Fold this protein.
Amino acid sequence: MMSGALEDTICAIATPAGEGGIGIVRLSGARALAIGSGIVQLRSGRPLASVASHTLHLADVRLPLSSETPPAETSAVPPRGGNVFDEALVVYMKGPRSFTGEDTVEIQSHGGWLILSLVCRACLAAGARMAAPGEFTKRAFLNGRLDLSQAEAVLDTIRAKSAASLTVAQRQLRGELAREVDAARDALLRLLAQLEAGIDFVGEEIEILGRQELLRTTQDVAERIRRLGATAREGRWLREGARVVITGRPNVGKSSLLNRLLKEERAIVTAVPGTTRDIIEESISLDGVIIHLVDTAGIRATDDALEREGIRRSRSAQKDADLQVIVIDGSTPLSEDDRGLIEQAAAGRHVIVINKADLPMRVGPSDMKPGTMGLPLSAKTGEGVEALRAAIRSQLVGGGAEATDGIIVTNVRHQAALDQSHRSLVQAEESINAGMANELVAVDLRAAADALGEITGAITTDEVLEQIFSTFCIGK
Ligand SMILES: Nc1nc2c(ncn2[C@@H]2O[C@H](COP(=O)(O)OP(=O)(O)OP(=O)(O)O)[C@@H](O)[C@H]2O)c(=O)[nH]1
Ligand SMILES: [Mg+2]
């Protein structure tokens, strides 16, 4: 798929499939202007090559004069100036001031599938070839317009489903992640240069770089990388949403709380304990962060086979939870089951909700273990729900402590590279402490720097590029 030389001029429909007021075909490459000129006829009568770069012009689009007659489907279209099949706005963007860095022509025709296919066909007939998936963005990378992490951010921007993930993608697109990674990599490369200079002098007793300094810089960089890598979990939540599982004893108001958070009567609520049997899952946005809310069967000992299966599913949902909301019925004294659930959830992220706050309360702060906080709330009246929303959100993305200037790693490939780099640095640290030879330390530092280079594409292989860009669709 990724084959295809950089010399080729490529074309593709850049707008989504379906009908639209306009649709855009993008042409990029050395012959973009020549090919574009062959298929558009400016209404002004001027040649496309004569217009200023980055200006829009009304034009007729036609199959190139040399190609055969238009295909049968177009015979219904009244001929205008021979094989003209649409009118369009055309813009020529002279490289390197274009997305790909190459000469680019964009043809903004009417947005019908047939029209756009014809524009493409005209481009092909005039000498272009169809672009492979992600090929425009790949060229932008190869031409130095974007680093690899920015190229990936193009895809994240297009796919962003929440305001928060869009913000992160946009910051990455502006190169903020790359700058942070490059700074760490530069520090390592400087260290390596000094170390290697020292290695050359072995035997002459010249100490270019003290062991202490070597250790300190290695640790500094390792810590920077660790902090950056630690944002990845938050990054995944921003990208894919976090699973928030509502658990608790039967009848405490879990389904009522789900409905309250969803603002709709999604789950059945009754006064009968054991109402919910199956897992119910719905997504909401908490101020731009997507949450997959999961309502579960109340957990208790029961002989009912159906309820038991529901409880089994509850327990499995608990295990997959990114955060648990443990609901307690505040109108009854805290039970052993409640205590057990709180204990169990304490290891992971959790929020404890003391529900039915509209009733006389029988659970107070003193019933909680020290260090545990219960959020009073009424699913019935809605009191305390805003506080719960804020608590969930801040548990998931408010952390900030780990965030490095708000830069968040969202990409699995970046996370793996950061982990790899961090492991190499820890190894380097151990070697330094063990008094190993500089040559050995240098090997680990080099590996750490190379792993960072993979993020921005400073170090890359064709396979990596292939893997990344093949996930794009054609036209990007
Ligand atoms: N007064 C009051 N009643 C509530 C509140 N929340 C829920 N209830 C009532 O408590 C009962 C149980 O509510 P559900 O939402 O079905 O409880 P659940 O935890 O989903 O129960 P199971 O699905 O059986 O585990 C219903 O009669 C609700 O009307 C609340 O905040 N205040
Ligand atoms: Mg329920």
Summary: The first strand starts at residue 10 and ends at 13. The radius of gyration is 30 Å. DSSP finds 15 helices and 13 strands in the chain.
